[in-house]
Amino acid sequence: MCVKVVCVGGGPAGLYLAILLKRQSPSHDITVHERNPEGSTYGWGVTYWRALLDRLHAHDPESARAIEESSVRWNQGVAHVRDQVTRQPGDPGHGIGRHRLLEILAERARSLGVRLEFEDEITPEKLPEADLVVAADGIHSLLRTRRADDFGAHVTEGRNHYVWLGTTQVFDSFTFAFAETEHGWVWCYGYPYDAGHSTCVIECAPETLTGLGLDALGEADQLALLEKLFAGILDGHALLGGSSAAWPTFRTLTNDNWHHGNLVLLGDAAHTTHYSIGAGTTLALEDAMCLADALREHDTLPQALAAYEHRRRAELLSAQSAARLSAQWYENLPRYIGLPPHRMFALLGQRHSPLLPYVPPQLYYGIDKAAGRLEVLRRFKRWLGPRAARALHARS
Question: Which member of 82, 93, 112, 156 lies 3.0 to 4.6 Å from 22 by CB, making a disulfide possible if both were Cys?
Fold first, then answer.
């Protein structure tokens, strides 16, 4: 159906869509335009879970095998609170370097005949002619911004500040660390992504950021202070910074419409979810799968784009709710941090529950523990949870 496709943005979503469309029909004319040089990606490692890997194998086994071979795995979480450590088993997790992921997808796209144009910024004023234009150019999408009235973007700023770092410490689990300072708590999410590196996302409340002076320090001084705070988990290894010492707040993006004419939004250009649920890359790749399926299944472009938007909006409700509740859990960390570490960690794992903010933490922990033993309580929790989620979502 789509003879010529222009994809603006060479991230995971754009590259994977190009791969899937070329697999569907080698005759498609597909070009991916990326404004940055090849190999100059931001970020360290990304995380995903087994369910995504199974879907990747179903859609394109060759790239899925390469991604799996380049990933590291873990099957437990560990939380460090002050000088106490607690571990819990969990679903198998996977980490892969963002640079390596993009390298795999770019190589696969080229092998199928996709043209990749790097250092080539596409603007609304110089948009190539195409049957379908895909805006996969991130939360700051220029194509979406220039057509703001058509898409109706809404951005909500989170309260806490964060910084995305790397480290040469290779964690053996998904690692949480909470460090107490005289100005409040600072915490870290850490996970390995190759044989020699891990990602460290560090977060704190705004009053802690300014109290510690992190907002006024240069990057080298920031890293030195953070290495001191998290010396217990870094074990002498360094934190690795990027090109910016800024501490942004997370921006949650939604859009009233995901497509207009022959232009469609994909990945972070369409929606964002808080990093604390580790789903950004997964959701972007699932967008690509859904759009490719819709283009194959429907006879006209308007039908395909409408079906894609309808299906993904419905599929995202659960993840968006989980992300919103997860961000709120960390914004209200003092409510939970005083619990015994094993109880705090248990409620950390329950942070997606719409009931948790309204039930005293100790009581919720006791009910949840009892629900694990009594079928009637498990059924009640399964019945009440979705209803509460829908009510809170409608209210928000």
Answer: 112
Q: Six-digit token pair at 200?
A: 């460290």
Closest C-alpha to 365, from 344, 385, 382: 344
Calculate the alpha carbon distances from 337 to 112, 185, 217, 366 in Å.
Answer: 51, 9, 27, 17
Let me know: does 173 contact 78? Beta carbons within 8 Å.
yes
Higher-confidence residue of 381 and 209: namely 209
* Secondary structure tally for the chain: helices H, strands E: 15, 15
| Residue 299 DSSP symbol | S
**Calpha distance 281→73 (Å, rounded):** 16
**Cross-strand partners of 28:** none
Distance CA 325, CA 357 (A): 9
Quote the CA–CA distance of 293 and 300 in Å, as a whole number. 13
Strands 197-204 and 153-167: antiparallel
Q: What percent of the chain has pLDDT over 70?
A: 92
Q: pLDDT tens-digit profile of 115-135?
A: 999 999 998 888 889 999 999
Distance of CA 99 to the CA centre of its chain: 16
